[in-house]
Amino acid sequence: MLNNTPRSYGRVARTFHWLTALIILANIGLGLWAVRVPLDNMALKVQLFSLHKTLGVVALTVAVLRILWAVTQPRPAPVHPQRRLETLVAESVHWLLYGALVLVPVTGWIEHAATEGFAPILWPLGQNLPLVPKSPALAVTMAAVHHVFAWLLIAAVLLHVAGALKHAVIDRDGVLARMLSGRQAGDGTPGAHVLPALAALVVFGAGTAFALTSRPQEAAAPVALEQAASEWQVVEGDLGFTVRQMGTDVAGSFSDWTAAIDFDPATGKGAVRVTINMDSVTIGSVTEQAKGPDFFDVANNQRAVFEGIIRPEGQGFVAEGPLSLRGQQVPVSLPFELQIQGDTADMQGRAVLDRLDWGIGASYADEATVGFQVELAVSVRATR
Predict the structure, then answer these.
(1) What are phi and psi of 204, to 5 degrees?
(2) How far from 233 is each of 119, 238, 261, 272, 323, CA to CA, in Å?
(3) H or E segment and range at residue 319
(4) Pair (103, 15) in one structural domain
(5) 223 belongs to a structural domain
(6) Three-state SS string across 35-85, please?
(7) Has residue 203 got a pLDDT over 80?
(8) Cβ count near 341 (within 10 Å)
(9) Are 259 and 273 in contact, with CB atoms under 8 Å apart?
(10) Per-residue pLDDT at 218 exceeds 60
(11) Whose CA, among 158, 191, 215, 381, lies 20 to 30 Å from 4?
């Protein structure tokens, strides 16, 4: 029989139940495994998180379909309605499970969409969500809530399994059998729904409050560089980069840098010295890893410096010189366009660098996880 009755579960409900159980247990295992993989095995860590996120989307889809089916069906009644406390706890756990099946993947998906691509979802439909901005603060908040809700889901699963075993081993009342084979059990007397639903809602509210009050405090902002003295003063600008990770472009930037610029518009020649505070880097959810010893090694290399000679080239200009980064000095050529109106200059430049030239991410010697090429993008407005 496909449909439920007041005393049994139909074939569709049973299929949804066991499919959900299989997906959730597998994803809990993937999540616990992924967080315990050390950062020096990033390739495995990224793969596990990608699988975890992808399976989370599958879990959300199955959960929504299961809930839609459930609201069209009669709910098999409690077998022991006279055991009021036991029935209340069981019903509350059911509501907690239904809520967690939706809220856990939703909060994880929002966290993923709010940050730049660490461990992409393995599908062709993009990594963003409508109305979810790229926001590190939102990502941190959702990560904290997702973490707490995930543990609530684990607790609800354990309570649900314990209850099922009690019915099967101690009570031997057919409760587990009606989910295994559709066997009828109980007298069909309906149970209460409002109080258990409210109890589950209170638990989620408390979990949210705990997540928001116990999340890690934001790190103190790095000490800013002093403005460089030069003929041209930078009044605004962006220094960003893009790297490919697991086949997805991930954008990063430096918020603190200075440029000392000498430039003669009449000859198109000059010089520039750019100093970058490496502690000001941000790159989505892998910012701390980017600062670590495998990549920028900020603890031992606080500054990066580019010293370039500016000259005309074709229809534009180029700045050429060494970039000192992570203890290595490598020549760099930065082509750029320049527009000057009066005493205001606007430039836009791009260059493609190889991270291995500076030993960045040397342990990632192939591009399966992190691409070799890094596209640097610079835009500057300066006044004389």
Answers:
(1) -65, -40
(2) 40, 14, 7, 11, 21
(3) strand 316-325
(4) yes
(5) no
(6) HHCCHHHHHHHHHHHHHHHHHHHHHHHHHHHHHHHHCCCCCCCCCCCCCHH
(7) yes
(8) 7
(9) yes
(10) no
(11) 158
Contact yes or no for 117/245 (Cβ under 8 A): yes
Instruction: Report if residue 2 sits inside a domain.
Output: no
Whether residues 283 and 246 share a domain: the answer is: yes
Q: What is the pLDDT of residues 7-43, one digit of tens each?
A: 899 999 999 999 999 999 999 999 999 999 887 777 7
Which residues are within 8 A (CB) of 287 and not within 5 positions of it... i.e. 6 or more apart? 136, 252, 281
**β-bridge partners, 351:** 376
3-state SS class at 252: strand
For the chain, the C-alpha Rg in angstroms (whole number) is 29
Q: Which residues contact 107 (CB under 8 A, 6 or more apart)?
A: 142, 145, 146, 149
Q: Is residue 226 part of a domain?
A: no
199 and 254 co-located in one domain? no
Query: What is the CATH classification number for the domain harbouring 310?
Result: 2.40.128.110
**Pair of tokens at residue 281:** 């880097």
Report d(CA 169, CA 110) in Å as an integer: 41
- Three-state DSSP class for 7? coil
What strand order describes the sheet that includes 281-282?
257-264, 269-277, 303-313, 316-325, 328-341, 344-354, 370-383, 233-245, 248-254, 281-282
Q: How far apart are CA 295 and CA 251, in angstroms?
A: 15
Half-sphere exposure of residue 195: CA atoms within 13 angstroms, side-chain side? 8
How many domains is the chain partitioned into structurally?
Answer: 2
Amino acid at the residue 6: P
User: Could you give the maximum distance between any two Cα atoms of the chain, in Å?
Assistant: 95
User: Per DSSP, what are the bridge partners of residue 334?
Assistant: 319
Nearest alpha carbon to residue 46 among 381, 378, 379, 370: 370
AA letter at 380: V
Q: Alpha-carbon distance 76 to 182, whole Å?
A: 11
Supply the range of the domain harboring residue 191: 11-214
> In terms of domains, do 148 and 279 share one?
no
Cα separation, 161 vs 22, in Å, equals 13
pLDDT digits (tens, 9 = 90+) for 280-319: 998 877 888 899 998 999 999 999 999 999 999 999 999 9
- Contact by Cβ (8 Å): 163, 90: yes
Report the half-sphere exposure of 257 (CA within 13 A, side-chain side): 24
